[in-house]
Structure formats: structure tokens, C-alpha cells
Fold Cd(2+)-exporting ATPase.
Amino acid sequence: MDKKKRNLVRIIAAAVMLAVLAYAPLAGGWRFAAYLVPYLVVGYDVLLKAAKGVKNRKAFDESLLMAIATIGAMALAVYEDGDYTEGIAVMLFYQVGEWFQSYAVGRSRRDISELMDIRPDYANIEKENGQLEKVDPEEVQPGTIIVVQPGEKIPLDGVVTMGQSSLDTVALTGESLPRDVNPGDEVLSGCINKNGLLRIRTTREFEESTASKILELVEEASSNKSRSEAFITRFARVYTPVVVYAAIALALLPPLWQLFLLGGAPQWGMWFYRALTFLVISCPCALVISIPLSFFAGLGGASRQGVLIKGSNYLEALASVDTVVFDKTGTLTKGVFEVTAVHPEKMDEKQLLHLAAHVERFSTHPIAASLKAAYRNEADDCAVEDIEEIAGHGVRARVNDHKISVGNSRMMEAEGISWHDCTHTGTIIHVAMDGEYAGHIVISDVVKEDSAKAVEALHRNGVAEVFMLTGDAEKVAAEVAGKLGIDKVYSELLPADKVTKVEELLAAKQAAGSQGKLAFVGDGINDAPVISRADVGIAMGAMGSDAAIEAADVVLMDDNPLQLAKAQRLARKTMRIVRQNIRGSIGIKVIVLVLGAVGLANMWAAIFADVGVMVLAVLNAMRAMMVPRNNVKEVSGRKESDMKKTYKIDVDCPNCANLMEEAANKTPGVKMATINFMLLKMKVEFEDGYDAKSVMEEVRLNCKKVEDDCEIYL
């Protein structure tokens, strides 16, 4: 029987005993002894936890509040009328609230585990006899041909070499429509092969694959705490001792006032009871659990939509975004360029395409791909040497001993080559041979179907301004911006110019006293510096570069920019829930605290208010998770370096997790330890020269001193 079931049995047993004792004709010491049994059955763990906290000088938590309140109520019953029901009921309903909290958190953990089922258990390698051998994906090297059968997950990133099929990408992108793949298409790990047999040449090791990186992002997201979470942690540390001292003052000062200043008989029992009521309602459980749960649910809900947010701090920032800056190519446009016109000077069109395609033959840029596709005769006998790619300008190379330059107008000007503009709308690629202008090629990008909807949706969300930055010519940029409803466009920018422009926009917002955040959305390796400079950096994950994804705070796994508007709505919904829980929990508790202090609320009202507020706050928090559900399973772990390891833990409450984290960080040999309470994991980075196993044995002992019920599975 697991711990949650045992606690439920204890609660039911104590409730039954309490109901029976209500009709039992007992008196005196026998009555006290009889009522002590259900009290200890339902509350012994709370009492032990409070005692251990006092012993370790970490006394001020909700266990101490409940222990003092219920022991005080039992003592008051002995002193006054022998009615022990109230003290036991307080502990009983407190445990009901704790059980409900445990259930809600457990359900959220299961949801997030199901969400993360993108890690395959094996990869199929075809042996010489044609039989398939299942191997660990982590053992497969790049360049290996693997076989993916219908219904299986693609274990590693790669390129299809044989076969046709459709892929279920919902676990990665949140997109329910399958994606058709053919030989030559790139495929990502974590997708499910729906029908045809595929042979795939792997392009990355598993640790560098899409599935592994997504798992890492999701697992680490809860470690980056928002200002609201940090506030609640600090608030709980200060709040609980203040409440205890306030309760002591409430129990002592009014009777002493009656005795010494008014000269009357002090009403010790009445004020002691009010102080106990004060302690019961002051328990901060609703805040301590519901705020982290709200963010956790929000991060999980976003992940289900194909949006990976790297922490609740970034979710909080995304909710405050009022300025969005887009890169153009690959973000608002498909990055699929087509040659729409060829204008040679002293040669025919085929010769001009021949030169441009061969210079660009080793480039992965979308423009290079379009030139090679238009020429269609890449594998001829031309000798291409001394290839040099110049960021923001173009490419130089020697083709059959001729010096060829292919790039934009800046490249022509830098090389002192006279060129002329084109009346066609599109990206103009100029070509020069041996220092003389040879002509130009017009390439047009295709705008994504949902880009205009994305801009419109962002405006509906309350985003004040949407900008576009691009290295394209002003005419091309203006045409795209006009189609999409972009507020302002900056064109002909180098990668460094984009960083400068974003810094200017940030400075303008600061000068205007704006509290809103600026988000930049990009996909390419050249976007990584500007992504990291924005308040919220957003990368298009499915076709984005590793550098951009690494620098980003938010990753859109789908190439659809409309996902950004959805993510912002979810972030704002989560922040509304957080604010509702903070205001509601504190507001109701303050009201009942005041009513209890003046005698208008008894202990029954206090415990119902406390448990009720917590239940409502937790239910409200779980609304952030209410998004379409994927039918997936739990995921297994990943390999890590020897200096960084992740351990499964067992701990009941966020406060205990914080104490465990403090104890772990004080252990010699630990460079940094962080606990993810929602995923029940401890990530430890070790100092050089220490044995990880020995250090973790010491960490386990230190954590046991703080919380005996906790466990670290080594």
C-alpha cells in the first residue's frame, strides 16, 4: 500500500472512531484516553514532524502550527468541558487537505510524465542476415542506418533514405495533423511512424537529438522560479514565525490587560482558544502549494501545445510581453525560396545559374538550396575551391579558376563592383565573375499561411507593437510587412545590426517607463545573439538551429508563429490564476484571522476555511493544465555526466523540499543542488575531486536529519 492510500485509511479510521466516540458513555481519564487514539492515528506524523523541526531548529512550518493548535485544543478540553472533538477534527480536516494536495500534485506529475513520453526505448539496426536487432538509442552513432517500423517512435534525428510514411508529431509540436515524409526528408526523434517502413540515416547522437533536448528542457523548467514563486517562498519563511508570535501575544496580552490595567478577572481560556483558532487559520498551505502548482500546470499545458517554456520566470515574462519583434526568413516566411527571374549581363541564364549554384553548393542557407534546385545539375565536373562565406553579405569561391562572388548589394559594394537594381520584388542575388558584374537572380520567399493570423492574434492579446527585422532589401521587406500587418519593419540589417536595433527598442521602452516586456522570435544561428538579448527570446524549434534553441527562453516546436499567440494567452491565464490564488488565499485568511481574534470565528470555522481555501486554490491552479491531452506513457531517464547527476526523491511538501535543498547544498562536495518538487527529482552538480556516490550518501543522511520521511534513491 502506498503512502497516499495509507493516509486515506488513517483519515477514514480516525473519522469512524470519532463518530463512534460521540455516542460512547465515557468520562474522565477514560474519555481522554479514548479520544487520544483517533488523534494519534490521524496526527502522529504531524506531531513527529513538528518535534523534529524544533529539535533541528527549523520549527516554523505548518506542522508546528497544527501541533500547537491541536495539542492546545486537547489541553483546553481537559481544563474546561472535556469536549475533545474539536481538536481531533482540526487535525482530521488538516490531513484531508494534505491528502487532497498530494492527490492534485500526483495527478499533475502523471500528466507531465505522460506529456514527456517522447523518448524511445530502442532503435532497430538491420543485421547482415536481414534480422532487426534492438539496441539502446544512446549506443547508435551518427551515420548509422536504422529501421523504424509502423507504430514505432523515431529514436534519433536523421534523414529518410528509403520508404514513405506519415508521422504523428503531436508529442513534439502539439499539431494533430500527420506529416508526410519521403526519401531525403529530415525527421526528428520522438515522432511516431504511422504506416510505412522507414530507413533513416542518423545525423546526431541521442544526447544531441530533439527528443533528448526536449526532455532536458521540460525537466529543468520548474527549476527556474518566477518572482511570484520566490516571493511565496520568502513570505512563508517570515509569515509562520510571525503568526506564532502573534498567537502567543493574543493568548497573553488581553488577559494581562484585564488583570493589571482593568482590575478584572482574566479570561485565560477564552483568549487561549482564540489564539489556537488564530494558529489554525494562519496555516500557509494554500499559498505554498497552489502557486508552484499553478506555474507547473502552466508549463505543462504549454508543452502540450508544442511550446516549451524554460521556467516559470519566463512564463511570467511572456505574460507581460507588449512588444514582439520577428525575424523574417524562416519565422514569418517558410524559408523556402524559389528562383523567379534570372537576368544575366554577358552570358545566358543557365550559365549564370551554373556559377551561383556551384558557389553555394556547400551552403545550408535556404537561398543556396533554391539556387541548387533551379540549376538541377549540381554533380558536374566543375572544380569549386576556396569557398568563403561572409556573414550578411554572401559567398566567394573559385569555379574553374574564375573568382566568383555571389551575394547581396553590400557584397558588390565591398568588392568595388558596379551593379544595378531590379524592378522585380524579391531577394536579389548579385553575381560577379573576376571582378566584373555578371548579372542577378531574383529569389522570392513564401509567406507562411498563419503569419498574418499570428500578428492579428498578438494584437488581440494586447501586444501594442509588432516589428520585423530582416537582412532583405527595403522593397521586399515592405511588401511582406504590408501583407502581414506588421507595425514597423527594419530592413537590410546585418546580424549585429539586429542586436543593436533590439537594444534600441529596449532602451526606448525603458525611457518611456513601460513595464511591458519585449520578445524576439527567430530561427537561425545568426539569431542566437539577439534572442539572448531580448527580455523573452523565442526560437522556432522544429526548423531552428541548435544555437537559437539553446539561447532561447521559449521554444516553439512547430514552425507556426500562431503558436506564440497561444502561448501568450496560456501564460496570461496562468498569471491570472496565480494572482487569484494569492489574493483569494491571503484575503480569506486575513478576514478569518480578524474574526477569530475578536471571537466571531471558532476553530471549526478556521479549519474549514483553511482546508476550503487550499482545495479551491489547488483546483484553480489545475485549470492551467486544461489543454488537449496526448495519449502517451511515462518516460525513462537519460545519461548524464559524472559531475552532474539527477536522483529520484520522495518528499511530501514544498517546505520540506526547500529544507532538503538547503541541507544538500551545505554538504561538502556539492557544488549546487536543486530540487524539483513537482517532478520529485534532485539535480546535483559535484565539486571536482569528490566521489559522487560518497557525497550522495552524506547528502542523504543530512536530508534525513531535516525530514525523516524524505528519501533519495541512489
Q: What stands out?
A: Confidence is low (pLDDT under 50) at residues 628-640.
